[in-house]
Every structure is written in C-alpha cells, then in structure tokens.
Specification:
Elements (H helix, E strand, L loop, with lengths): L3 E2 L9 E9 L5 E3 L1 E2 L13 E4 L5 E9 L6 E5 L11 E6 L1 H20 L4 E5 L4 E6 L7 H13 L4 E7 H6 L17 E7 L6 E4 L14 E8 L5 E7 L7
Parallel strand pairs: 1-4
Antiparallel strand pairs: 2-3, 2-8, 5-6, 5-8, 6-7, 9-10, 10-15, 11-12, 12-13, 14-15
Helix pairs in contact: 1-2
C-alpha cells in the first residue's frame, strides 16, 4: 500500500496519527501515513516510538523503504509489542536526533555550493557527515570552513520546489551526484533550494533540511582525505575544531 509520507511536505512535523495497514513477518509495520523519514540518499531513517491507545509504546530501531520508495516500513526493536492491522497509533519521531540530521544534511548542501565538483558519495550522520567529490586539487579545510560559516551566517532561506519526473529527466545537469540518482517514480521530485529565487543553490534531494541556513549552527571541516587520484572526502562536524558539539 502506498504510504502518505508527510515529512516530504513538512520537515518539522514530529508527531501524527496513523493506522496500521500491514505487519511483516519480521515485525516491520506499515502505516497509511507517517512523519518518519525512511533511510535514503545517505541520510539515516528516523527512530522514535509508536504510542498505542492504552499508552504503551513501541520503540522503533529504524525506518526503511520496502520494495519501492512508496513503501515505508517502521522496524521495532526486538521484543517490542506488536500492534494489530487497523489499529490507530500516535507516531513520535526522536526529534533531537532528526533535527541534528536536518542541520547536517543542509550543511552538506552548503558544502556542495563551495566545492562545485561532482559528488561521488555522501553519508549524513548525527555527529559527523562526509561528502566525496570528484576532484584532484588540494584545498584548505579552514578556508572551506570559513566559507561555510559565511553562508550559515547570511541566513539564507531553505525551501522546496517540486518538479515532475519528466522535467528532471529533461534537465539531468541539475543533479550534482555522479552515482546516486534522485528519488523518482512517485510522479514528482523535490528540489532543495537555498537563497531567494534559488540564488545560492538548487538540487534534487529527498532528504530533510532546516528552513534557513542559520539553523545549521557552528560547523567545520574536520578533515579532507585523499581517496584515490581524483577523489577527496570532506568530513563535516558540528562545533569548532577541537570543540565538537
């Protein structure tokens, strides 16, 4: 059953009601709608809890996609209670964790503005994220940090625009990643835009992001690693060098 993924239109929605539509043999739970982000594009899926009518909680260890992007499976930790199909639950995202991931994912977009090379890989984390670029030249990490914090401090708006799958297919150059394609097959693709009229950046992405760059907070490039002749890995962390938050 195709799920209504509420987070696609509201990154700040951390709770909602939903009805159980299926239970998998391994305990995975499908719902008619969800505010839980499912692992995709280098960003981990949400954790949190599902609250039953009697107040008991079902603690989730991960959220993932099923056979397609239109299927989202909520996976409880071992030995958690199992709900019934048709049961109404109240969903509660682990908000502090999600918000850190939103800040980090936005920071990765800002880095792609400063380092305008094709992206060969990326992983968003709560404490550290990495972005790999197809590049051979050396670059000073402190200089990149300064440019990142300049964009953060300018407090540019971050927002979504929607285009159709066909529009994306007709404009493949807007995709920065060399290896990962934007989520397609749902009829529409979200463009994450930074700056008024996308003046800073615009790229397809299905992840979650903050609404203005200032929310990213203090970040820095902790390390730049050489991963091959033409590949550089940038590691982003919160806080200032030596004072990670």
């Amino acid at each position: 059953m195709r799920v209504n993924a509420l987070y696609r239109d509201d990154f700040y929605l951390s709770t909602c009601e939903a009805v159980v539509t299926a239970i998998h043999d391994d305990g995975g739970i499908e719902l008619n709608q969800t505010c839980f982000y499912a692992t995709s594009g280098g960003q981990p899926g949400d954790t949190g809890q599902l609250e039953r009518a009697d107040g008991t909680k079902i603690i989730l260890g991960q959220t993932k996609h099923g056979a397609g992007k239109d299927v989202i499976i909520h996976v409880p930790l071992e030995n958690e209670p199992r709900p019934e199909v048709g049961e109404t639950l109240v969903l509660h995202v682990d908000w502090p964790r999600r918000y850190r991931l939103m800040r980090m994912h936005t920071a990765c977009h800002l880095l792609s503005v400063i380092c305008s090379h094709p992206i060969t890989g990326a992983a968003v984390g709560e404490e550290e994220s990495r972005v790999d670029f197809d590049m051979s030249e050396t670059i000073d990490k402190d200089e990149v940090t300064a440019k990142l914090m300049e964009l953060v401090g300018q407090n540019h708006p971050v927002y979504l625009q929607w285009i159709t799958d066909d529009e994306l297919a007709a404009n493949p150059d807007i995709v920065k990643s060399k290896n990962v394609r934007p989520p397609m097959g749902l009829g529409r693709v979200s463009l994450v835009c930074i700056g008024e009229n996308s003046s800073i950046d615009s790229q397809p992405c299905g992840g979650t992001h903050v609404s203005e760059t200032q929310e990213v907070g203090q970040i820095h490039i902790a390390k730049i690693e050489k991963k091959g002749k033409e590949n550089r890995r940038f590691r982003i962390r919160f806080g200032t060098p030596g004072q990670e938050a």
